[in-house]
Specification:
By secondary structure, this protein is mostly helical. It folds into two domains: 57 residues, no CATH class; 61 residues, no CATH class. Helix content is 40%, strand content 6%. The chain contains five helices and two strands; from the N terminus they run αβαβααα. The chain has a two-stranded parallel sheet with strand order 1-2. Helix 1 packs parallel to helix 2. The N and C termini lie far apart (35 Å).
Length: 136
């Protein structure tokens, strides 16, 4: 992928969801409703303002939302691990709207196809596919 390790490319296209609870709610609802119901039963979130519209999200998706206790990252280890992996691409505080949707998708593809020790050296994509197959 070009541009990595260099200055972020100029934004090309609309903002990816924008900022705040309304934008986050819309983007998260769209992503979650693409999943089979069995895979969207619950979501554990930190206490950021981005999910302050959680009640509407829960109504629209049927997903129960739980909040981690303050300063308790061990309650959401996958999220914390993923944040660490994302920091390899984006320093904390990076404005993601400066990146194209294609760039963000390419990074998601890389991370979802990277073997993880916690998954027995399978990739998240492999485990997800196994879960989808087991539901059919």
């Amino acid at each position: 992928m070009e541009g990595f390790g260099q200055t972020a490319p100029v934004k090309n296209g609309p903002a990816l969801g924008g900022y705040g609870a309304v934008a986050m709610n819309a983007a998260l609802t769209e992503a979650m409703t693409k999943l089979p119901e069995q895979l969207r039963k619950t979501l554990t979130w930190d206490r950021g303002k981005e999910l302050s519209a959680h009640a509407q999200f829960a109504l629209e998706t049927g997903t129960k939302v739980y909040f981690a206790d303050p300063h308790s990252p061990w309650q959401r280890p996958t999220n914390e691990n993923t944040n660490g992996l994302l920091r390899q691409y984006f320093p904390k505080g990076t404005d993601l709207s400066r990146w194209s949707a294609d760039d963000l998708e390419a990074i998601a593809f890389e991370l979802n196809n990277r073997p993880r020790k916690v998954l027995g050296w399978k990739t998240p994509a492999e485990v997800f596919d196994e879960q989808i197959r087991s539901l059919q």
